[in-house]
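Priority: medium. Attachment 1 of 2:
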């Protein structure tokens, strides 16, 4: 079975940029998974740090209203990995998931860490590169011209163990 993991689509991230294109692609993917009766699992990052955009008990931590009603399951996490100290693996095992598709935010942290952790646990992993986004920029990393999504997608693809597709490639296969 396949499952879609939607990572950190929360007000504290989405409201800090123009992610219209990413959210549209995410919604298409979610609808496709639901139409195929494959589970859609939302991860929600909850931060204890004062002033964090994803601080516990603030509006920032809430799932973004554009997608929140699609969740079959919502799981909280406190680190970039969706597997670390969560029940995600138990839920995936119970549902007999073998192939995990990953979309969401932030590409270079939570999406990448989760993709690697999923592979380490024996899952086939597909990251839909342009259905991820980040609030960070080339300026954040002091690397002029850096395309964060493309960089992460390239690194994961070159690993030869994690499949990386664009939304259009996914649509042609489904």
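Attachment 2 of 2:
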């Amino acid at each position: 079975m396949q499952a879609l993991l939607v990572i950190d689509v929360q007000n504290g991230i989405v409201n800090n940029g123009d992610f219209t294109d990413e959210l549209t692609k995410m919604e298409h993917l979610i609808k496709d998974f639901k139409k195929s009766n494959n589970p859609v699992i939302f991860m929600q990052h909850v931060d204890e740090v004062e002033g964090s955009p994803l601080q516990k008990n603030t509006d920032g931590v809430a799932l973004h209203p554009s997608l929140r009603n699609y969740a079959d399951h919502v799981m909280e996490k406190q680190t970039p990995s969706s597997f670390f100290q969560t029940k995600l693996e138990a839920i995936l095992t119970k549902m007999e998931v073998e192939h995990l598709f990953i979309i969401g935010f932030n590409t270079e942290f939570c999406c990448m860490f989760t993709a690697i952790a999923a592979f380490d646990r024996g899952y086939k992993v597909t990251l839909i590169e342009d259905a991820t986004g980040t609030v960070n920029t080339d300026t954040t990393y002091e690397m002029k011209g850096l395309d964060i999504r493309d960089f992460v997608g390239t690194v994961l693809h070159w690993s030869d163990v994690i499949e990386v597709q664009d939304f259009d490639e996914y649509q042609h296969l489904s």
